[in-house]
Each structure stands twice: as structure tokens, then as C-alpha cells.
Amino acid sequence: MTETTRPDPALPPVFDPAQVEVPLYERWVERGYFEADEKSDKPPYCIVIPPPNVTGSLHLGHAFEHTLIDALVRRRRMQGYEALWMPGMDHAGIATQNVVERELAKQGVSRHDLGREAFVEKVWEWKAESGGKILAQMRRLGDGVAWSRERFTMDHGLSRAVQTIFKMLYDDGLIYRAERIINWCVRCHTALSDIEVEHSDDDGELVSIRYSDEVVVATTRAETMLGDTAVAVNPGDERYKHLIGTELVLPLTGRRIPIVGDEHVDPSFGTGMVKVTPAHDPNDFEIGRRHGLPALTIMDEQGVITAHGPFQGLDRFEARPAVVAALRAEGRIVSEKRPYVHAVGHCSRCKTVVEPRLSLQWWVKVGPLAQAAGDAVRDGRVAIHPTSMEPRWFGWVDDMHDWCISRQLWWGHRIPVWYGPDGEVVCVGPDDAVPTGEGWHQDEDVLDTWFSSALWPFSTLGWPDETPALEKFYPNQVLVTGYDILFFWVARMMMFGLYAHGAAEPSKAVPFHTIALHGMVRDERGKKMSKSFGNAVDPLDWMDAYGSDALRFTLARGANPGADVPIGEDWVQASRNFCNKLWNATRFALISGARVGELPPSPELTAPDRWILSRLNTVLAEVDEHYEDFQFAKASEALFHFARDEFCDWYVELAKTQLAGDDAVAERTRLVLGNVLDNLLRVLHPVAPFVTEALWTTLTGQETVVTAAWPAADRSRRDPAAEATVAELRRLVTEVRRFRSDQGLKPGQRVPARLVLAADTPALTDHEAAFRSLTRLEPEADGFSATARVVVGSVTVEVDLSGAVDVEAERRRLTKDLSNERKALEQAARKLDNEQFLAKAPEAEVDKVRTRRTTAEAEIARLEAQLAALPQT
RNA sequence: GGGCGCAUAGCUCAGCGGUAGAGCACUGGUCUUACAAACCAGGGGUCGUAGGUUCGAACCCUACUGCGCCCA
């Protein structure tokens, strides 16, 4: 593709997205418009993509987020910034390992058959063949990302970054290894961090068990009683004080266990006595630690009971009823509540019920890191948009638990710690020599995927090396992400960003200056989209049917900061219609000879010309204001109304009269049409990149709108007088159209009319031709006889309907208007009769109400006169 | 159980102290020379309930009811 592929200037009457989108995108990439130059003098503007999962495909949530990011970045690029949207993916440890294991299982092979090295090799093969589908889909959406900089969290460079920060944290004592209760997925066979667990209210059972004459405990997981090593009561609970320090025999096991006093026990819950299973419950673990209790693990990594006895070998869910049955046989079941609804944790990847389990894992000590992350927002170095989301942020970072970062997987960054034959533990940095010799081995576990994602804002720019890209683009300007994952990786990026750049000046250490939060995409009934509910939509389907611009514009138009976005097919269709409207308006302009050139000075222009330019420049300013505040919905809405309701419906129609008249006026009209479209297409480009590119290049003959200058609002074109004139003209036209509609006249039917002006009305006298064209009123001819009249203010339009006048329709209309005016008068009068109002309301407000009263009085007089003049039936 | 938020036209949402708005849907009429993926005109809401503050409340305060989300 060497020549500029420009659509035929004679545009077809319907916009066909399928025909233009793919070639346009390919051209953009080929010409490098989305690439960024770290050596440029332009101010930087960098946003990193929230890295999609390598196993994933584009869903509406991505489409939404990408639309917003792309709009921000495209606008800044047009504004002359060195704009970089950094693309890439994360390696999604658990998800990817699961996918590849499933593939292998089809051939009857397990990862253990292959061995670690060969398995990881397989994963890379899988990625090369079928990973990263989403990248192609991003092209369909039109994402203006710098493809030459694409990164992957498992790349060499990013892996170096991971190892570097691990070593830094380890040396600073912020990474440690400890035996704790973790969330264990018995299917994925790995530990999960707290945020990888989803809680839901599930049906379960609550069983009360008599441990002794005086001790009754309740549990939802009866099988864990096999691992009990104590019973606890609140030390202040008078009922049980005497039991503290005594022992009882744990049923089914015959083990003697103590009764301990612990503040953590809530005396008001159940019997006020709790069983303590330190190896299988986080709270019990803490109790156990406080009282030096042993922790008995009674289950293996598959969730199968290992405790000796009749239950050994049973799955945890088989063991549960079996244990209850055995206790019942001994007469120890006091009560059973079934179903008992309670919160149950599930693996966010595979939905398996998570098993709390005592296990030796690696942890990040988040205290100081989270403190710094909170402070960065508190002292204003990082702004959260909208600010209403701040409490959510502080609520999280100010009360964060240590982060479990080890995963019992093979796919991921292997923990860079080596163990020696004599109990040595060595953390190895990226440039350090790995310990060799008899008995040395590396830790088997890999790191949580978020550990590498947390580095994304700077590892993608070359960190830990001091690269020019890092120098230019760190900190990033904005991070755009959903409020639902504010804690997931935003908190982690803040912690690691601030830590890794701790030596930098405080305002430069933050990973980004602004966090812009968006909501979640919902269906047209406001319901959360989910595969299981069956209301999930594939954005590709809508892009195929209506075009990418239609999808993007719909999403942008729904994007209120921090709020969820409902979307339905009807709305995408409406956006498609809007794109087609732009297409046809441009088509009309081109057919009419519109061109982009120097705009004549205002005094040479007609009121409609001056009006549309005034409106354009007002809207341009509004759009800028909204963009600066991440108000995508407002910006899009303003443009939608301007383009459709003002430019297309009124200016273009008025222009038709101007184009048909005086040559000089027609020529100036062509320039105004060209100028408005030129600006409108540029300012719409960030949210509807394809249709605007196709139209703008055709209109201007220039290479691309992608790098065209962002339109600056020209205040000097503001023209309140022209706006008032056109407003009056529009009112007159609408009144006549309403009359015509009431009278059942066909829109195209031409009717003779005479204009009678009671006062000087420039809106009409200067624009009579336009007025008659828009209302289909012909000049009066011989034999004109006025059979009906429309009165609007000082203007009377006498119409010759040649007989058939629908007097009743007219009476209904006038009566309704009269009733409205009387209501308005009553309201105004009531206020003006109120002395308190006169005394306390601001002057301007009182004046406004006075004017309203005067207008209403005049209108009432006019309407009453007209009603009286109607022929009686 | 703790925290945050939301209740405005049939649906989805703006508005957040001075005459109730948009899109879609709806009704009637039109192929009017850019567009029927369009145009013209129209109907539709005592702004969840009850109190309070104010000259004035959809908007501020309190309670209640009903939903949603996050955390435990």
C-alpha cells in the first residue's frame, strides 16, 4: 500500500464500516502513527494498558476500558503530546497452566508426565499458537497502541525486573517465608492470595456438637473437628470461666484437648464456645499461636482426609456427613440447621471451594508499602477520579494483610531463592551467580502473576535499566481501570512503583499521577453480564453488525466517571445511525462544494453562519472541559447533540437556501460547512476514529486525522446575537410546523402564506427565504385568501388552506397552550406575592420571575384573542 | 455483621437549591432534491415513603422501605 487509500470522493449514500475499518487500521500501524519517540521534545503522555490475560479474548469490559484509554491518548496525540499507549499481556499463571493442562489431558498426558521443563516449553508453544487472541481483537476496535513496544510479563526483560525487585524486597526484609493459613485451591493445587478468592452465600449446614457435658460447639465444616486441638471461650464469659484450663476428650479421636480463654471469641455467637482447628482456619490459627496449641493437618492437598481412623481417604465433602453420622451415633449432635446460608470462598479461576490450609509460603510484608501507597493519595501526588472512590482506596490500603506471593505452579517467575545442603538460604539477583554444588536447589514455587503486573508501569519501559523510555514516560500520566480492581493491581502497582523509585523525588516516584476509575459494563436492563446468566455479548458481533465506531461511541457516551455502563444492541444501533448521519452530512457538504479554507470574518457572514460557528466553538470548549475531567459521557453527548440537532437539522437545512442564492453567500456557506465539519470530525475522532478518518481525509485531502491538530475553541466566534436570531427563527419555524401537523398537512405540501409583521423581526425579515423553505410556505399568489393564521409573538402567518381548516384541532392546540401559560402565570404570581421571596431571593431571580409573569400575561392575551377569533362550530 | 452507594418518563440514565432533561421505546404524518440507518410533529414524570431545614428542595438533613456493590 504505497498510495493514500482514500475513499472515493463521491461517497456512497450509506456508511459501510466493514469496508473502511480494517484497511484504515493497517495503514495507521504501517505509518507508525501510534509509535512514540522517547527522544522527542514534546511533553510525554503515557498510559499503560491494564494487561489483559494471555488466555483471554476481548469482552465488553475491555472494549469499554480501551475506548476510554484510546480516546484520551488520541486526543493528547492531536494536542501535540508525545503520546504512548503501551500494549501487552500478563502470563496469567493459574489460568494459562489450566488451559494447557486441559489440552494435554485430551491426549491423556499430565504435566507430571512431561516434567517441569518440558511443560513450560509446551506453554510457550501454546502461547505462540493460540495465546493472545485479544491482540487481534484490539486492532478491530482501533486501539492506537505502540505495537513495537508490546510486552509480556514473562519476557526476559520483565522477568529481570521481577527478580530485581524480589531481591530488593528480600534484602530489605519485606519478603519473608512463613507457615500460615492460606487459601488453598484443591483443584489448582496452589495457594491463592485473599483477592483471588470470591465469596458467595452458599447453602451449607450448621451442626452443633456436644464435646462434653458442658461443651457444645457449632461448625459448618464438621470434618475439621478431627483436627481440633482446643476449645475456646471468651475469658470474660461468666458462664464458662470455670472451664478455662480444664481438658476434655475430643470425640471420635480420643484426644485430650484443653479449653482456653481467648478474647477473639464472641460470647454472643452460638453457645459462645468455639472449636479450635489451627491448621484449617485462619482465626483458629491465631488462637493456636496465642496459646501454643499444636496445629494438626488432617487433609492433604487434594482435600482428602489423612487423619488416621475411619475417615482416612475420604474426600472432605464425603467426610463431612460421615463425621456427623458418627457423632450422631454417639448421641452428640445437639442440633442441625440445614440449609444454613453462609459465606463460602471459591477459587476465582476454577470456582472450587477454597480450603484454608496451613502451609509454608512466601509473603510480602505490606505494612510500610501500603502506608506509602495511601500517603501518595493523601498528599495529592496521585489523584483518584472520581474522588468519591477515595474511601474505597483508603479502606483497603490502610488495612491490608500481608500478601501471599508464592504459587505451587510451574508457569510463572520461579522464586529466585536457593537452598543449600546445610540449611543455607540465598536470594539470587538477576546478575548474581546461582549457587552450584552438591545439595543446592531452587525453590519450587513461582510468584503470583500480580507480582509481575505490579511492575507493569515501569518494567515495560525498561526498568531496572535506566532507559530513555523510562526517563521520558515514568511516571505514567493516567491509569485507567475498573473500580472493582482498585485493590487488585492498582494498590500493588502503587506499592512497587513507590518502592522501586524510592530514591526519586516524591512526585516522580509514583507510578502515575491520576487513577481514572470506570464502572462495569451491564446489559440493557442494568444486569451484570455473565456467561452463566446468558446475557454476555461478544463485542466482535456488534462490531461486525454496526462497526467499531458505533460500539465505541455507545460506550463513551455511557461513561460517567466511576459509574456502571449499561449497553444494549438498540443503543449500538443508534450510534451506528449517528455515524451514518455524519457520513451523509459530509456527503452533502462535498456534493455542495464545501471546502476547508480561511473563514471569512464574522461581519461578512449570515446569522446562521455566525450561529453555527458560535455554537461549534462553545461546544469545543465544553468538550475540552469534560475531557480534562474524564467526563466522556458529557463530551460525547455534547458532540452528538451539536452534530445531529444543530448542525444537521438546522444549519445544513438553512445552508440549502444560502447555497441556492447569491454566489458570494453560497461561497461563504461552503467555507462554513467545510470549517464546521473539519472541526467536528477532528473532535469526534478519539471516540469514532474510523468514520472520522474516512470523512476527514476525503474532506480535506490530507493524509490522516490521527495526527491532525486538536481543534482549539475560538472564543472570538462566540456570537450571542446570532444565537438569539437563530433561536427565534427556529421557534417560528417550529410553530408553523406544529400548526401544519395539527392541520394534517403533509410535510411536503406547499401552502400559500402571507407574513404580517406587527414589529420589526430581523429573524424573519432577513431570513424569509429560509423560513419559507423550512416551512414549505409559498408566496401568496393571485386569489390568496387567508383561511387560518398562526401567531407567534409579533409575527402573524396567514395561510390559505383553500377551505378545509380543522378548527377543532386549532382550538385544542390553543386551549392547551393557554392552560400551560396560565399555570406559568399562576406560579410566577404566587412567588411575587410572597414578601419573603421578594425580600430574600437574589435580585436576578426575582427579575427572572417578573419577566416570566410578563411573558405569560402577553401570551395569555394573545391566545385568548385567537381562541375568540376562531369560527364557532 | 461492618462499610460504601443507588432509588427521577415504559426502559437505561443525566441533572444535585431557583419554570422537570436525554437516548431508546411509544403515537400521528411523510420516500420534502445528504441520510427511511431518515425527516416533521406529538404524548408521557405529584423526581421511593415520611418528617425537617429554606422565601424556595428532585437537589441539603433525619428516619423508613426497597435494591446494589465491596469487605468480614
TrEMBL record:
Catalytic activity: tRNA(Val) + L-valine + ATP = L-valyl-tRNA(Val) + AMP + diphosphate
Molecular function in Gene Ontology: aminoacyl-tRNA deacylase activity; ATP binding; valine-tRNA ligase activity
The keyword Calcium appears for this protein: no
Aminoacyl-tRNA synthetase class Ia domain boundaries: 24-428, 439-565
Family named by the database record: Belongs to the class-I aminoacyl-tRNA synthetase family. ValS type 1 subfamily.
Function: Catalyzes the attachment of valine to tRNA(Val). As ValRS can inadvertently accommodate and process structurally similar amino acids such as threonine, to avoid such errors, it has a 'posttransfer' editing activity that hydrolyzes mischarged Thr-tRNA(Val) in a tRNA-dependent manner.
Quaternary structure and interacting proteins, as annotated: Monomer.
The protein's name in its UniProt record: Valine--tRNA ligase
Species of provenance: Jiangella asiatica
